[in-house]
Amino acid sequence: MDTEPESPFENIESALQFVELLCDAIEETRREIEQASAEQQSERRQQALQLVSYNLAKLALHMGTSRRILNDLRTLRRLFLQERGLKEEEEQGEAAEEIAAPELTDSAEGGGFTD
Questions:
Q1: Rounded distance, CA 86 to CA 27, Å?
Q2: Among 24, 17, 29, 16, which residue's Cα sits nearest to residue 71?
Q3: So where are the chain's domains?
Q4: Phi, psi dihedrals of residue 104, rounded to the nearest 5°
């Protein structure tokens, strides 16, 4: 039942992978902007690049928070599915025990003898 998701956000793992890639791209861009800002001679352009760097830092913080939330959701889903799987196994085990255990009746309890 391994099928490719139709959209990139069909499941939590694919969304998490996208957010991680986006975080990497943001960090790389931020380093490039800081380097360009240090090399810039024009004060106005340097201030603009610093503003871009600041906004990229804010975006990185938000994406880091999103990554943690997605990771928490993935963990909770795994725990939930595992519990549900265990509960289903217990129910199946109880049903199998009921089928395997013979029921005692009044005649079986007395061994079939009467006084």
A1: 42
A2: 16
A3: 12-98
A4: -85, 135
Q: What is the pLDDT of residues 8-46, one digit of tens each?
A: 678 888 999 999 999 999 999 999 999 998 888 899 999
Instruction: Report the Cα–Cα distance between both ends of the chain, in Å, rounded.
Output: 64
* Residue 3 CB contacts under 8 Å (≥ 6 apart), including other chains: none
What is the pLDDT at residue 72?
Answer: 95
State whether the Cα torsion 63-64-70-73 is positive or negative.
negative
Where b means 16+ CB within 10 Å and e means fewer, 7-21 reads: eeeeebeebbeebee
Asked whether the beta carbons of 67 and 23 are under 8 A apart, the reply is yes
- The answer to whether 63 and 23 have CB atoms below 8 angstroms apart is yes
Helix (H, G, I), strand (E, B) or coil at 40: coil
